[in-house]
Write a structure and sequence with these properties.
heterooctamer, A: 75 residues, mainly beta, B: 270 residues, alpha/beta, five-stranded parallel β-sheet, three-stranded parallel β-sheet, 10 strands
Chain lengths: 75, 270, 270, 270, 270, 75, 75, 75
């Protein structure tokens, strides 16, 4: 969070923490940059679920709030 | 013995259960938490014969490569994944998590939990009824984890729940069926399936529950935390079948005084 | 499913038990009293997987042609016949009946009963120990039906009994395991097999008993007097296996407070 | 022994309980239903030491001269009358009956019942919370009869209830404390008094309940339907004191193995 | 409240018990082991109302001045001293200790223990019956500590025992009444007093035992090891009276379905 | 209910049943006519509770719905 | 038991009841006369068990006490 | 036990341990020497209980086996 912010980056909040990402990065790009398989996660953006088919086109914007979840063991 | 053969055998013995229009050969639903490894979980799925496995919805780790996800491991087993809303304390939270779970594209089924107390993990039944209504309206097949309150069970049925899942004793306690009467009240009061959820600690607990006439049991800790989980999974499978068969067979009446099993007459030397 | 295949399956799952030098694949001993017909008995033998069946010794009818005898019916099942001394109230009577039973030429095994009270059918343990000594001296393989008294159990072992058979609750009562602690005391105190005899009323009672670590269960009324005896026989077989597996698997610890099975961390929207 | 002397004695032994700002010397609340005569009721009030007696609100008979009313009989006992809303199935009905009861001018106290199921007489906890809120807003001192659900108990406390009155088992069943754990959960979760209401069948049930640390017990059928109600009333009074004292005294720990009470050393002839 | 007044009150309430021709106002026999001081013991004697106190026979210390002896402390209480034969494992040892105890010149009463197992402190009933016969022949008033075996109880009665003292659960375990049915069998089978000896852990255990119709209870650890022994002594006294009164009063019948205590008819607004 | 109705009577419903009473009868009169002690009953008229102090002045009107209740044994 | 006794018959007690049988009848004959299969019964004579191999040769005598037993259903 | 034995002492076993005492000592003397109140103990000598009235006259002899017991707390 203390990284220098340049004109080419924006800040988003994902899973409760701030992330500085390239301006114009898509959701698919955001996941790929973190080695996440888009087929096993579900993403909510600003309270709305993003259909998996739109991961490639959706560009993240400053202040976006993301929840990126998957299934884990639970009873 | 292959998993498939087993399912066939069981189905023919004690029938299966139908929830939300889907029929399952096994009456055991397995929770996937607290296993020492995905491999143990998968072996327990196979040994128990479970055809439904619950999972929780949690944030992925964005900082380090994640372990790949539970689904990859369960894919080969053919089970239905049943997401839960564990950890939610309001109807709103639970509805939100249910929607996220459905967006994974696996099914409309959700195990609905709205917790009201952190120490006992008792449900908040007021919120639970509200959340059930909302999710049913949105097309979910809702399986609410609830208390053993017969009036709440009926309200959940009225709200459109596909089954009710009363606890036998607190989640993770292993105390077994504390109040069999209340479970029978529920069994008699609703037409939807009754799945005992939480409290089973060992095989006899499962047999006791099934003998009450409930349709199935959801268990997790009893298997995951047994010293030998795979062996306990097998025990549970048999225990559930035994309990169901005994329920169908109709037990002998209890009596306080003894009654001989050998004839009284014709004794030697009388 | 044939009886033979079943035995094989079970033996591989939960092992068998060895009494008096003979090994049996099944941990269930079936009493043959109170069945509505020999045919039902035979079907219950097959369905339960029992390899030992108890019988009583009684006078034949000298006035009318007798029904032909139980043995003819059981011949095809391959079970070992275990004669009992039911109805005897002194060591002398019991010894006499045991000798008559042995003269039938089937085996040296005898289920020794010396009853001390007609209403409860409780054993007279003083006479029981005496009769055990006598019969052991005569070469019998003695399986005494006894109370749940650990000191008596040890005395029976010292007297040469091949197994001890404590009651779970009164014969024919169906009250299940009333005092699990005493059964465990016995299990820990003797090296010979412990067979729970009497009191089991439904499948879960059998599972509870086996989870205590006993070696097997003798039951009769629970099956014979079930509404559907054959189905209950199947339930009992599974219940015993389930209980044995659970005993071997090592159950989770009990706890009074709940413990979540889904992770606390990573919840959505925290 | 006069009623007054008794109260003094008890108060000094186990203290009393304070509900809605009023202190009562006795921890026993007596229901006035099902007694064979007003005289028996009055004698049971005196013998039990109860200082609160519940009554129901019902239509007077307009066709024949009524028997004069219960109040006349209870006047001399000095007890506080606690009207209930028994027989109400919605919050609205219960509120209406509570208002009628208050109009009698005796007090602001009401035992709030909103039943959800005719066979089990289980409360409808959703309606119950609603009715509690309404009545508290109107200045009532509300004592709701509720299930043994800890989350509901806390909601009732938040709604302003002066005490919570969870059931031990169904009203009139006499099954005793079926789920002691849930009652303890409630005891630990709320700051207001916990009064066990319903299910007590005999004296030991009352002792068991009090040992859990609850503040008091409301009972009716156990006394009214005993063969000798007056003697049972005395038994109950002692049972409640015994249980409270034992709770305060702190019981010995349980252990599975025996432990001698006489010294091991110094035995004769060793 | 003075000890004397208390005895009077109790005697008039629930009667006393007569053993070996002597009548005692209290149904509680107190064991004197494991108290933190003689003073606590004496206060518990007074508070419990016990009129019989058991003691053990042990070698005096010949090397250092002994503490003076228990008897000095108990002298003022007016209780009857009941020596036990704790720690004896054969009939011969027990008889020897009984004779030593009688030589103290206090009475002919002896609490006869012949232990058969060190871990459970279960009696050896074969030796017990033998020792009872011997001591009765010598003029002792014999109160044997025995198992809950109805046949043994009858044998002890036949041997001349003045009472039988079956265990409720192992000595010092505090597990309460594990097998109520067996205690009732004994109560119905013998004409001499039945005193429950061992196993009571808290007040409700005593109430439960008394409700079975037994004549009295011998307890020690439950009081001596309570956090507040004197308060527990008072609790036990009330618990025993409550249980006895409830037994005499005749409890209501149990039922699984609820039954209203307020009238169904005449409800408002119907 | 099949009694002849004259000009001087009205009908009220009390405790669920119809009662024909003299026109102008007060609540106190209604109770007295039925031997009821006003001190031990509570009356609701058309959904409103009537304070005991008003029993004497309140005149019943045609169609009034009354609940007249008291305390009975109940748990 | 009140049947006429002739020179050619004797009385034995079998299973607690008196039976009049031909003098000289063997145990095998006794059983055959009652349709009993000797392979499924055990016989005690005057307190001593009779080996099955001796059924054919053993002649019953006046006053003999027999127990003839078999297995029946029992728990 | 390692004390020097002279002509004027004898050895007895009391409560399982050897005691060297003056020759001719009575049982009463034995108890008094150990500060024991004769009224609260019971004594068995060589398997026979000694009546309290004889404590004063009974002289201990070499090899006597004594059990000296009293009452202690016990359940």
């Amino acid at each position: 969070m203390s990284r220098t912010r340049t004109a080419s980056t924006i800040d988003v909040v994902a899973n409760g923490e701030s992330h500085t990402i390239p301006d114009g990065q898509t959701l698919a790009g955001f996941l790929a940059a973190r080695d996440l398989d888009p087929d096993v996660v579900v993403v909510e953006r600003n309270g709305e679920i993003v259909p998996r088919s739109r991961f490639g086109e959706l560009r993240l914007e400053t202040g976006d709030r993301l929840e990126v979840v998957h299934f884990v063991g639970g009873g | 013995m292959s998993g498939e053969a087993v399912t066939t055998e069981r189905a023919s013995e004690v029938g299966g259960m139908t929830i939300g229009g889907r029929t399952f050969g096994s009456r055991l639903i397995l929770g996937s938490g607290r296993f020492d490894s995905p491999d143990t979980l998968v072996r327990c799925v196979e040994t128990s014969g479970a055809e439904i496995v619950t999972v929780a919805v949690r944030r992925v780790s964005l900082d380090r490569a994640d372990e790949g996800g539970l689904l990859r491991h369960l894919e080969g087993t053919g089970v239905m994944i049943l997401p839960n809303t564990a950890g939610c304390y309001t109807a709103e939270q639970a509805v939100r998590v249910a929607r996220l779970a459905r967006a994974a594209g696996l099914s409309e089924f959700v195990k609905l939990e709205v917790i009201g107390d952190e120490r006992t993990l008792y449900p908040d039944v007021v919120e639970l009824v509200r959340a059930t209504r909302t999710l049913v309206d949105e097309g979910f097949v809702v399986l609410p984890y609830t208390s053993d309150d017969v009036v709440v069970a009926r309200r959940l049925e009225e709200a459109g729940a596909a089954a009710v899942m009363p606890l036998a004793s607190p989640i993770g306690s292993g105390l077994g069926v504390v109040d069999p009467l209340s479970l029978r009240f529920i069994r008699d009061a609703v037409a939807i399936p009754v799945i005992v959820d939480a409290g089973v600690g060992t095989a006899s607990d499962a047999t006791v529950a099934m003998e009450l006439g409930v349709d199935g049991i959801l268990m997790n800790t009893a298997i995951a935390m047994a010293e030998d989980p795979v062996k306990m999974a097998r025990a549970m499978r048999l225990a559930i079948e035994a309990g169901r068969l005994a329920f169908e067979a109709g037990r002998m009446p209890r009596r306080e005084w003894a009654r001989p099993t050998s004839p009284d007459e014709g004794r030697v030397g009388e």
